[in-house]
Write a structure and sequence with these properties.
The complex is a heterodimer of chains A (about 280) and B (about 300). Chain A has two domains: about 15-55, no CATH class; about 60-275, MetI-like fold. In chain A, about 75% of the residues lie in helices and about 0% in strands. Chain A contains 15 helices and no strands. In chain A, helix 5 (about 105-115) crosses helix 8 (about 150-160) and helix 9 packs across helix 10. Chain A is globular, with a radius of gyration of 24 Å. With about 300 residues, chain B is an all-alpha fold. Helices cover about 70% and strands about 0% of the residues of chain B. Classes of the chains: A mainly alpha (about 280), B mainly alpha (about 300). At the A-B interface, helix 2, helix 4, helix 5, helix 6 and helix 8 of A face helix 1, helix 3, helix 4, helix 5 and helix 7 of B.
Chain lengths: ~280, ~300
């Protein structure tokens, strides 16, 4: 009986085989790209154990397009968006969580609208707005539609509401202002949520493509994703070794961060999704 | 900085403070979500402005153009096909992955990483990798099918397989993402359920069907809504893999919107297509809000 209980629902050999087969299939395209990127072009589609390793493809990709500028643009963009989202989200979430005022329900409903009509869809009108503001082809234009994040407000509001009111009142008794209380009591207690949101936001904006493609038209503002697409479509059908090297290069920061902090990534995506 | 308020101060001052806190976020939301949503609808009743001439009221003409546009209908059919394939496939795969990774399976950490990795990569990068994978003659797929003695096939270049090929990429990208929600839900199930099932001698399938699956229902609904939204939002890979072709064989709605709005610069017609997309997404959200939300528990 006890042996049976221990074995209950344990994966069978067949499960293990199937799970491994699926996992290998899942990383196969990636592994193929890694192979090609780290070997000389003559081995790009030929497998030989003796094939020499090389970083030459990365060097050539780096020299063939202004990737340094693209990296800088993406880094600045991601940092700018995250900081503004967190500041605006924190202030708004605090108002929703701890103030009672007329129109709160309506205001909150207005915020939630963004969860269903994302900026990703409203391309035509947002382009017109940016053109009127003279912001086309700037980093600010890429970030602006995402600055106020309904998702951040929602997530932080839920968290703030779960913080005991007594802590808030204790801080007020000691003479802290609303903003001081927010900064000293709420923000530290919500730190895991900030981390979670930060990881999700950074991944999203690092990977975002369609809006940046539309609103940028020069190297000055182009983020990595758009730069990569321009680079690999100009060289269409040419050197796969260099294209895969460029592809891995653009994904590397996120991929390395993910491999190092797997648990945080998975938990953040989970927390962000479950709301 | 504003002067702080103490609890119990006048409600008018409280309200003023609250609105001040909300102001920056609300202004940006109105400017880049509410206003464009409304002006999209308005613009869809006007003609496209040409040069300095503003658009004129044309009523439903843009919608008539849409109804008569074979590419639009192709995009709608493709998008429904795309949704019909990605949603059940990615959810089923996610569930199976989660059930495996939830158990003490050999190499569990590696399996979880392998399944989840596609999620963190940019879709554009992923599409490059798959383009290489699908390439005729050189691609890994051709090498494998060639080794098996199968005839060569241009997966992305032939109208019969282009849509299937881009759908596969989407499933590959999404399944690992949905897996983590199932995994979280499975790990939060009460362990005594499993003990009870063991004592009762319930088969594994019975335990899944009668215990795990019903308890996972809120997760399934949540994942379902997300999969639906993604089916109408995920088009980045088309830019690299097929550009909607060949002959619009793999075109999706948002990609069509991009072409009309930013390749042909017919912004009025593009507004009409945007309205359709907004209605679809709002419909999904309202369905979630009014039908499903009661069943999804907040954690």
């Amino acid at each position: 009986m006890s042996a049976q209980r221990l074995a209950y629902n344990e994966p069978t050999l067949l499960d293990t085989l199937a799970a491994w087969l699926l996992a290998l299939l899942w990383i196969l395209p990636l592994a193929y790209a890694v192979w090609t990127a780290f070997h000389p072009a003559e081995f790009s589609t030929r497998f030989a154990l003796a094939a020499p390793l090389t970083l030459d493809n990365f060097r050539r990709a780096w020299e063939a397009a202004p990737f340094a500028r693209y990296f800088l643009n993406t880094t600045l963009l991601v940092a700018m968006v995250l900081v503004v989202q967190l500041v605006l989200g924190t202030l708004a979430a605090y108002a929703f969580a701890r103030y009672r005022f007329k129109g709160r329900g309506v205001a909150f409903a207005l915020v939630l609208v963004q969860l269903m009509i994302m900026p990703d869809i409203l391309l035509v009108e947002n382009y017109k707005t940016m053109a009127k503001l003279g912001l086309v082809d700037t980093l600010l234009a890429i970030g602006l539609p995402y600055f106020a994040s309904a998702f951040a407000i929602f997530l932080l509001r839920q968290t703030f509401m779960g913080i005991p009111k007594e802590l808030d009142e204790a801080a007020r008794v000691e003479g802290a202002s609303a903003l001081q209380t927010l900064w000293r009591v709420y923000v530290p207690l919500a730190r895991p949520v900030y981390t979670a949101f930060a990881l999700v936001s950074v991944s999203f904006h690092w990977n975002n493509f369609l809006w940046p493609l539309i609103i940028t038209n020069s190297v000055n503002a182009r983020p990595l994703t758009v730069g990569l697409q321009v680079f690999s479509s100009v060289d269409q059908g040419v050197d796969w070794s260099v294209i895969t090297a460029a592809t891995l290069m653009t994904s590397a920061p996120l991929l390395i961060a993910f491999l190092l902090f797997q648990r945080q990534f998975v938990q953040s995506f989970m927390r962000a999704g479950i709301k | 900085m504003r002067q702080g308020t103490t609890a119990g101060s006048s409600t008018a001052r409280e309200a003023a403070h609250a609105w001040l806190l909300l102001l920056p976020a609300l202004v940006l939301l109105v400017a880049f979500t509410h206003w464009p949503a409304v002006s999209t609808l308005v613009d869809s009743f006007y003609s496209t402005p040409k040069g300095s001439r503003a658009g004129v009221w044309v009523g439903l003409e843009n919608y008539q153009v849409m109804v008569g546009d074979p590419v639009f209908w192709k995009a709608v059919r493709n998008n429904l096909w795309f949704a019909g394939a990605t949603i059940p496939m990615s959810i089923a795969l996610a569930l199976v992955m989660a059930l495996w990774v939830n158990e003490r399976i050999a190499g569990r950490a590696f399996l979880r990483m392998a399944y989840f990795t596609p999620t963190v990569l940019p879709m554009i990068a992923v599409a490059n990798i798959w383009l290489f994978f699908y390439t005729p003659q050189y691609g890994l797929l051709e090498q494998i099918t060639g080794a098996l003695g199968l005839p060569s096939h241009n997966w992305l270049g032939s109208p019969a397989t282009a849509l299937g090929a881009v759908t596969l990429v989407a499933i590959w990208k999404e399944a690992g993402f949905f897996m983590i929600f199932y995994l979280a839900a499975l790990q939060s199930l009460n362990p005594s359920l499993r003990e009870a099932a063991a004592i009762e001698g319930a088969s594994r399938w019975y335990f899944f069907r009668r215990v795990q699956w019903p308890l996972l229902m809120p997760t399934t609904l949540f994942v379902l809504v997300n999969a639906f939204i993604n089916a109408f939002r995920m088009v980045d890979h088309l830019f690299v893999l097929t550009r909607g072709g060949p002959d619009n064989a793999s075109i999706l709605l948002l990609y069509h919107l991009y072409e009309v709005g930013f390749s042909f610069w017919d912004t009025a017609y593009a507004s009409a297509i945007t309205v359709v997309l907004v209605v679809v997404l709002a419909g999904i959200a309202l369905f979630q809000f009014f039908v499903l939300d009661r069943k999804v528990h907040y954690k």
